[in-house]
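Closing statement on the adenosine-5'-triphosphate sub-project.
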Amino acid sequence: MIHAADRQQVTVRVPGKVNLELVVGPLRPDGYHELVTVFQAVGVHDRVRVEPASTWSVRAGGPYGGQVPADRSNLAAKAAHLLAQYAPDFLDQGAAVEVGPVAISIDKHIPVAAGMAGGSADAAAALVGCAELWKLTMQREDLESVGARIGADVPFMLHGGTAVGSGRGDDISPVLARGEAHWVLWVSRGEGLSAAEVYAEFDRLHESAAPAAPELSTGLAAALRTMDTAAMGRLLRNDLAPAALSLQPHLQEVIDTGLDLGAQGATISGSGPTVAFLVGSQADALDLSMGLAARGPEGEIVRVTGPVPGAHVIDASGPGVGPRRGGLS
Ligand code: ATP
């Protein structure tokens, strides 16, 4: 058994995401919309550290740490608790590790309630961290199915890269994406948007005619294969955008300003209000971010690239393992 004196800790790095395409279909009997989406994990990262403790706890620091709950409603805490329930089925008998309470520390850099799946990212990170800490014999698919019980975006945050999500967005299949995409994100400094509120507005806007069964565009898959950013820019699509714009009409001015400044495409990420601009190069990203800062509506401007890996261990130290870097298989 691991004792308090033998403390070990695991640190996991996890990215945020943008949606290149988000096609929303009809409501399912379980209350979720059927959807297909193309996710891309992008380089804005939270770090989540888990370590054995005498009681469960969660705390968050960093630029957005003050905006997330520091109790069991935190999605990282929910994920760790849920994994502890599954853990007995996946114990490594040789490891003799005790599954028990953990202290979770989040270094929060992914904007909150911004459509970038920051809460799901932290849940994914907590799953990877606790699976490593408890030496669970889980495959990535096992973790994805536990993650899907926390939230529809959690499986993608485990997977990372560029991938299609179908069903509730939680059924993940990889997409071939060659090269690197440059994004400029406009992040609201005002009110965020909750996904529930945006879907409710989507339903209101579709009261008279239910949406059709969702289908991915074949053009986007072809553009991703060659990283043809001009074509990708034209094909960006988000069916939640009209609902997000109805709730926050000023986002249209952000989109128009970025396109006017030369972005190859613009989209609201997920349920918003983050606006993601696709550009052709790092130099274009710098130009656009300076233009937006000078001309655009008040907001934080962040340059990122994608795709990047999903939740992965960056440090694990303690008895038996020693300091090391690596990830779950
Ligand atoms: P969603 O599409 O689920 O609304 P989002 O990316 O727009 O996701 P998140 O940053 O995930 O927004 O936050 C959604 C809500 O989840 C917020 O109200 C926040 O208080 C809550 N939350 C719980 N735990 C976390 C966490 N670890 N990080 C961020 N938000 C969290």
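The pocket of adenosine-5'-triphosphate is lined by residues 68-69, 74-76, 106, 112-120, 122, 194-195, 270-271 (CB under 6 Å). With this model delivered, the sub-project is considered complete and its resources will be redirected to Aim 3.
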